[in-house]
Amino acid sequence: MATEVLMPRQGQSVESCIIIGWKVKEGDAVTEGQSLCEVETDKATFEVEATATGTMLGIFYEDDDDVPVLNVIAAIGEPGEDVSGLRPVEEEVSSQTSEVSTPVSTVKAPTSDLRFPTFGTSEGVSPRARNLAASKGLDPSTLAGSGPEGRVIERDVLAALASGAPISPAAQAKIAAIGSGIGGRIMAADVQAPVAAAPAAPAMPEVSYSEESMGALKEIKVKGVRKLVAERMLGSMQTTAQLTMDTSADARAILAARKQFKASEDKAGITINDLILYSVAQTVVEFPDLNAYWLGEKMVQFENVHLGFAVDTPRGLMVPVIRFANKLSLEEISAEAKRLGKACAEGTIDPDALSGGTFTVTNLGAAGIESFTPVLNAPEVGILGICNVQLKPMMDKEGGVEFIPHMGLSMTFNHCATDGAPVGGFLKAVRERISTIEK
After folding, report:
1. Assigned superfamily of 241-435
2. How confident is the model at residue 271 (pLDDT cuts 50, 70, 90)?
3. pTM (two decimals)
């Protein structure tokens, strides 16, 4: 009997994988454990191995196909076996409206069993499902989920749309109503009033280009990490009121600490970025409004800091998360940051290690950036950008001027969730911690 080869599940947040390329073809002899193809999630790349020894009787998907996890992608068996029954068939969508299920509560605070909320979404709705539902004016909490533990995933939303499921009045109001309250806040009267049809999203402008007019061309399909980053950054800017505040911290202590560590045997690997991550983790835990999620109708504050940090990789930007960073020593944060950063660069990162952050740090200091506007990892409330070190003129005790190295800090926060004064207090505390960091 032929053996199925399934698209494996890589983490609870992954719904599908893109096949980058097959390493075998139909009719080839394969052995158990042999690499059959390379696939890519929106976060990492890995190989799918043969589950048996035999002949490749069928390859059911082509390169660049986006395949749901646990779908049969190939079959291995003896020559001549019939594998038609294993080939995927196009799913028929029921014409009946999806049964309404009880909405799953949104986000739970991380606990010590390392079960964390999916990045940017409610537990009961996947990122793709939520984005698609929002674009179509559909309330995903009214759908019956077919994912793990009843989770609503993208195919549930597609099924509801294909069946003509109606848009709920509440969803229509949220999309189209113009709030009459302060700052455009939607009031009860706005929701109860007749709602006009929501305007269509603006289409990308049509462009005309050719090799004759513009020279050699290279078209690149947007997928994987680049596609994910694009969706999240656009969604973040469209759904949050982002404001950036800039300041700087006296960098003499942190530069001296790095110099001393570099000369030691046991701490030589501790970098300035490690010192910053440690300082931020110890500071943000004191500001619960910033160590939080903004969920529109409510906020969720976290007792512990799960610190995300931006990593540039050949495949694009990734943000791995250091769990319980506020409880780790400097050495432990340094080791964990290196482990996660290496896994991101090599494409072996566990997808679940890229979700569940409560606050994020992004460091562009090494690139010589003096100030910038970090984009929030929604639903997180804050993200701190680290800039380069520059000499800054400061008045000394005698009234003269001396030049002191300062590190730039650029803090973006969601003004829906908090205000300038609390963020200013946080930045002041970060400055003080960096400027007095112990060696």
Report:
1. Chloramphenicol acetyltransferase-like domain (3.30.559.10)
2. very high
3. 0.67
